[in-house]
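Fold it.
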Amino acid sequence: MAKHLDLEEQEQVAELKHFWKQYGDIITWVLIVVFGAVAAWNGYHYWQGRQASQAAVMYDEVERAVQSGDTARLDRSLADMRDRFGGTVYAGQAGLLAAKVYYDKGNADASRAALNWVAEKASDEGYQSIAKLRLAGMLMETKAYDEALKLVSGSFPKDFVALAADRRGDILAAQGKKNEARAEYEKAYKGLDERAEYRRLVEVKLNALGVDPAAVAVPAADSGVKK
């Protein structure tokens, strides 16, 4: 009986050796891939958290440069932020802040460069939208109307659709295209919340074009009324 069990065990061991010889490498690599993926996932989240904390520190440096009025320091801080933490939300914030400072100091080229980077590279769509709207305003100042209009004619997140229409209205009005400007202002007026303060500004623009803002919303209000 004992010999019979020994023979069975030997056969099982032999089968196991044969199986491992045939499939052992495959199993090993599968395990390496699985455990490697888990480790990578955990490592990625750790990296994200670390990146965010380091980016926050770098953003503080950008703010200190702004407060000190040292544009050379701001240049360095912003460049470091974009190079090292360009994929974080802080980079978009830093770009918008720097753009405002450059503009206030009369450095329009640096301001446009900062806004261009945010518009094209920022990880947050909201910051991208803000940069495009501001940049379009700056282009209007230099009468680069076609370029400005192109910038705000693409797709925008829902919260910025009305603001983009308003900016298109500004550009068209500056070109003397009153009918087109009116159409864009009407889109903006309809798209903005009734409680939004910015809606009052759009009202002023419509009034300047001889449009009664109250009448603009009438079609939307009456659309569900059967006749």
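The CA atoms of residues 101 and 107 lie 9 Å apart.
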